[in-house]
Amino acid sequence: MKHYMLGLFDDEEVLLNAVDKVQATGLKIHDCVTPFAVHGLDKKLGLRESKLHIGGFWVGAAACATAIGFMTWVFVGNWPLTFGGKPHFTFPAFIPITFEFTVLNASLWMTLAFLSLNHLWPGRFRESLDPRTTSHLFGMVFKIRSTTSQDEKKRIAQVLTEAGAVEVKERTMEQHY
Description:
By secondary structure, the protein is an alpha+beta fold. The chain is built from five helices and four strands. Helix content is 48%, strand content 14%. It starts with a strand and ends with a strand. It has two domains: 92 residues, Alpha-Beta Plaits, CATH 3.30.70; 66 residues, no CATH class. It has a four-stranded antiparallel sheet.
């Protein structure tokens, strides 16, 4: 069982200002949940940039090399055909197939990596901390440990209320958020 405290805000600007206020008090924010992307929130929370695009580049490079290598092996080594004296290795004819194979592999592997890293594989149900954070409210999440005292919980709730939270609540979940 995991315990969380959630502060709900009704505006994205209030949430952005609240992040600064809460961090100034020394509290550690576990996460923020929003119904849409909030510009600048990732920098305020200190999140690093995703490295998914680097993986996509390397998968694309490997797919490109595989496509060119396979077509070269087929048309030059394994099954050379002479078409009116033309050369066996006709690179310009390989370009469309190489491009399509590269894009296909990069997109498939990046999608699988994204789903795996975010634990969003098919059939996985992830319960939200508050269903209203998917439509109109913005949430700031704090992890509550078994060692967290009632005074600390009250302090978190007070800081959230002073920062502009319209509601503060505790939530217990069976799965890790």
